[in-house]
Amino acid sequence: MTTLAPPAPVADPQVAPAPRRVRRRPAAGSLGLVAAGTVVGVVLLAALVPDLLAPQDPLEISLSESFAPPSAEHLFGTDQSGRDVFSRVIHGARQSLVIGLGATAIGLLGALVLGLLGGLGGRIADGVVTRVIEVLYAFPGILLALILIAVYGNSALTQMVAVGIATMPGYARMVRGQLLVVRGSAYVEAARALGHPPLRILVRTILPNAFRPLTVLVTLGIGQAIVWAAALGFLGMGVQPPTAEWGAMLNAGRNYIQQAWWMDFFPGITIVLFTLSLTVLGRHLQRATDAGARR
Amino acid sequence: MTATTSDTEPVGGPRPPGTSADGTPADPDSSADGGPAADALDPRRGRLLARRVLTTLGSSALLLWAVATIVFFLQHLVPGDPAQTILGGASANPPEETLQAVREQYGFDQPVLVQYGHFLAGLVVLDLGESYTMKQSVVSIVAEQIAPTLQLTAAALMVAWAIAIALTLATAGRPGRLGRIGSALEVVFAALPHFWLGVVLLVVFAVVLQWLPVVDDGPAGLVLPALTLGIPLGGFLAQVTRDEFDVALRQPFVLSALSRGARPGDVRWRQVLRHAALPGIALSGWGLGSLISGAVVVEVIFSRQGIGQVLVAAVTAQDLPLVIGVTFVVAAVYVVANILSDLASVLVDPRLRHAIGRAS
Amino acid sequence: MRRRSVMTGLAAVGAGSVLAACGSAGRAADLPPGTREGGELVFATDREPTCLDPHNSGDMPQTYIARQYLDSLVSMRPDGSVVPWLAQSWEISEDGLVYDFTLKEGVRFHDGEALDADAVVANFDQIMDPATQSSTALLYLSPYFVSAESLSEHVVRVTLKRPYSPLLTVLAQAFFGIESPKAMGRGLAENCELPVGTGPFKVVEWRRNQEVVMVRNDDYTSAPADAKHQGPAYAERLTWRFLKDNTARYGALASGKVHAIFNLPPESVPTAQADDRIETQDFVHSCVPYALDLNTTHPALSDLRVRRALVHAADAPGIVTSAYAGVFPYEGNAISTGTPFYDEAYHQPYPYDEARANALLDEAGWDERDEEGYRTRDGQRLTLRLPYASDPGETPPADLTILQNFQAMERRVGVDVQLIPTDAASLTAIRRDPTAFDIRGGYWNSPTAGVMYIKFSQETFEIDNGQNVSYAYDEELDQTLLEAAATTDPEAQQELYSRAQQLLTAQAWHIPLYPIQTRLAIRSDLVADIWIEPSEGEPVLHDAHLLRDGDPR
């Protein structure tokens, strides 16, 4: 159900390939960057002020207009109840983004705690944390989400928590690894030798350096979280219908695909474009981060 | 502009065996096929290897126990009466006495810790109980259903690797548009969600064009599901492999091989690919695990048998023994897959044999 | 004074198929032209039963499959009459309280036990035993049944406490199929897995979530009088496959992997009709149509005006037609067109009328609105909880659309309907708890118009098992229905049942939507002679025969 691994090849600390090299040619080019930025911007706008962009009420039905193909009036066509798919996609952006961002925040928070414990605590703490991370990794992500939903019911909050916990190990590993490395680096040793208080070293030196690569990870991670949440919606474990949510719309559209392909196509392509754009942005960010000095 | 080595600091934590900190692989010529034979028989290395195997097994067992325990307690938080699940059905209306009888029979009215004790006892002898909804032993259900899922994930892994290798060989390190197209293609592939790709493939190839069956137990029915799972993973593996390929291409040994008259195609295929594949192989262990979770969605879309769809049904029906059983098996598969990919890494890169025994 | 009413004459129906050939010796002679001998017949359906013993529970998928391996005492004809099956003749006493069934001789169960009066009595006992949890028994028989006893080796006497003219049609259902007592004695759990009957097929294996495998009963001698042929089935093997996904099920039919499917998805109807190889059969069940039952214990719903307003606002014909792409007909009456004594005067008692709905709601005191536009009274919003099965096999996409459309239509008049997807176990609990829901979807199939009594009577209300979903009853309605059940005069029955429909629709205890149908799609180029029997719309596969390649029927 996840399309992406621990986000982006470079970011997974366990198997990071060779450090990023500056390419001879920028891969996507500035055109790609602009396009990606636009997509992300539009989606963000849709999430913040859906009523501004959506021409119609996403919940209002119109039986006589059901299964209408895309037209000027209904850019993405209508669904089986005559609801405007375009408006629903716009409103769905908010659902997906809220869950995606919320999940990422939860994942980061948990990862921070774990990572700090492991990276800065003693060997025992590190051992425990590594084990915990392994255990979390061993759950196929969707299982945890399913169980949490069974316990606490379908709701945006449960989806968020479930996806958040599932993304946690990836971030935690990165945080812990980074902390370990930075802690032993020459720069920190120098600071210690100079007699700087440990807390200052921690806050001024260790943390910023450790978390810098996280920004890239997070950009990609948000995309993954959104896809994950949509997958849950697709399985019927997300928000309750008829609330507009990308995954749920795909689930409904699947049944009518032969007579109304637009019901499945447009929400799907939106997710793909959005995820793609986040990936492109993430990689640009990564290149920018790598190019600068990291010490 | 020549390639520059960026800072030598690794991006993440401990690196896997085989990739040194500064990213420069050793001269591969000396490690063509099998390392120095003498080393392999060193008893000290044997002991280290054995110790490593034992540690892995030990931590795997611990891992599985932890997984099962977590799932057990989580499901016990579920509101709802398992007795209803057992006796229930679409229009069932069991009287209270029957419900109570079932509760006693299964021990639901006992304290949680006692139930957990029973559960652990059963776990040790691989008795995972009986499914509430399917009235069969969990082990038999999983045994029946795991084969199609493993088939699917194996096929998907092959598809993913085929895509990764094809894209990398064809477009990595090549100047101009080709390289960029390959790179873009990988990113697009990796971004395709299973639940959308599957439906699109199903409709286009099975329903509209009718080139492939909609529902089929045999190999024909495996094609579309394997593609659905394999394409995104393939895109992802391709990215990893391509990056490594690019790095390896700039190594001195490539230049020396070419100057000795080796053909570029041969060099790319035989020498460079081996290096490039390493991180991908290491990732495959994780990849197989995530393929299984992706199989949940794919099995639903294509109405295929398999533990993925069993899992979804089990959680929706609050069928606790079945959920635990499937989780357990999936975790076990994940652990095994990782061990296998470690081994595969060793096979591909003989340098790793030297690394065995050193803590990773 | 006993009145002899011998029915054996009807055994002659289906003349020409009196061949009792069993075993393959005489088979070649009576194979229909173009038949491929033997073979495996594959039938795919959407819903999987929870138990293969139809005595337990009483859900529709059970009766559809049980027909293939169980025989019943009598078989029902489309006109409402019954013909001999396991009972080759019967006598009914003058007062209608005693039925004597004479069983066919020489019939054996699949496990070798003989079918005799004791076996039939054992069946009645098991059905009526609360441990079996037969909802069919509870509602069809309990109010009437006194006892069943063997008068002789092949004569069974059933005694009732009050006359029940629909009894014979009720007994025709596979829910009352006759099972081997020895098999029943193994206990419910085992009987659910591998029930044993006298039918044309025997159950071999049940692979959950996949299929039920059955093989031909070569010693079959007990086909009903209205079967297309007597003697064993033509197909050697029958596979009953579960494909709940609509695309998969139809796709399997289109590609020929299955020979026939149950419940042709509405979205596939145009394609099926355009395809020459596919034949569709539709049968409207005798039933209370699928409806949204209103729980009258809710303060708003106890008011008749509110209930009527809800029906007026729903535009049920519109939402059914659009959700089912016109494939399902709308039905506003308390019973379906397939039910005997249906009166079309009550087909649509409350037409779509938003203004009227608003007026009624205002009148009922729900005239204030809150910020979101929903009606309130004394600060309380008019909220109605509608739990439904989250399993897409139980609530197919079209039904989900109907629910959503219903919610949207009611929102227009200020009523807040909350759709709550619920898992099966929780639904079971909700069923018995009137405080846990306000509206619930449901239907009830039954071969008789007395189904209205089964669902809406005071007696059912007092059993308190949630079957009377509205938790309401009306004495006059009950009286009318009891009288109708007591008489056998068709004119009197029509009058009484019409009155019942009038009373019932006046109460607006539910919002009917569409009648239950059996809709088969069959590859007519691959298989022939599948038909639908009328008591519960069960598909009959005993007469089905696979066609030789390319041989048109």
Structure notes:
The complex is a heterotrimer of chains A (295), B (360) and C (553). With 295 residues, chain A is mainly alpha-helical. Chain A is built from ten helices and no strands. In chain A, 59% of the residues are buried. The N terminus and C terminus of chain B are likely disordered. By secondary structure, chain B is mainly alpha-helical. Chain C has three domains: 167 residues, D-Maltodextrin-Binding Protein, domain 2; 110 residues, D-Maltodextrin-Binding Protein, domain 2, CATH 3.40.190; 228 residues, Dipeptide-binding Protein, domain 3 (Roll). Chain C is globular and about 70 Å long. The N terminus of chain C is likely disordered. Chains in contact: A-B, A-C, B-C. Chains B and C meet through helix 3, helix 8 and helix 12 of B and helix 7, helix 8 and helix 14 of C.
Protein topology:
The complex is a heterotrimer of chains A (about 300), B (about 350) and C (about 550).
Chain A (H helix, E strand, L loop, with lengths): L28 H20 L1 H4 L31 H36 L2 H16 L2 H12 L3 H28 L2 H8 L4 H37 L11 H10 L6 H30 L4
Helix pairs in contact in A: 1-3, 1-10, 3-4, 3-6, 3-8, 4-6, 5-6, 6-8, 7-8, 8-9, 8-10, 9-10
Chain B lengths: L36 H4 L2 H34 L5 H6 L8 H11 L5 H13 L13 H34 L5 H15 L2 H15 L11 H30 L2 H8 L4 H38 L5 H10 L3 H29 L2 H5 L5
Chain C lengths: L26 H4 L9 E6 L14 H10 L4 E3 L5 E3 L2 E6 L5 E6 L13 H12 L6 H7 L3 E8 L2 E6 L6 H5 L9 H4 L3 H6 L7 E7 L3 E6 L20 E6 L3 H9 L5 E3 L6 H6 L3 E7 L2 E8 L9 H11 L1 H8 L30 H10 L4 E2 L5 E3 L2 E2 L1 E7 L7 H16 L3 E7 L1 H8 L7 E7 L5 H6 L1 H6 L11 H12 L3 H18 L2 E5 L2 E7 L3 E2 L2 E2 L6 E2 L4 E2 L7
Parallel strand pairs in C: 1-10, 1-11, 17-18
Antiparallel strand pairs in C: 2-3, 4-5, 5-7, 6-7, 8-9, 9-10, 11-21, 12-21, 13-19, 13-20, 14-15, 15-16, 22-25, 23-24
Helix pairs in contact in C: 10-12, 11-13, 17-18
Largest sheet, strands/sense/barrel of chain A? none
Instruction: State the helicity of chain C in percent bands.
Output: 25-40%
CATH C-level class of the largest domain in chain C: Alpha Beta
Biggest interface, chains and residue tallies: A-B, 81 and 84 residues
The assigned structural class of chain A equals mainly alpha
CATH architecture designation of the largest domain in chain C:
Roll
DSSP strand count of chain C: 25
Neighbour order of strands in the largest sheet of chain C: 8-9-10-1-11-21-12
Secondary-structure element series of chain A: HHHHHHHHHH
Unreliable parts of chain C: 1-26
DSSP strand content of chain A: under 5%
Label the structural class of chain C.
alpha+beta
* Estimated radius of gyration of chain A: 22 Å
What's the tally of helices of chain A? 10
How many strands in all of chain A? 0
Determine the number of helices of chain C (DSSP H or I, runs of at least 4 residues): 18
> For the record, what is the CATH homologous superfamily label of the largest domain in chain C?
Dipeptide-binding Protein, Domain 3
Q: Report on the biggest sheet of chain C.
A: 7 strands, mixed
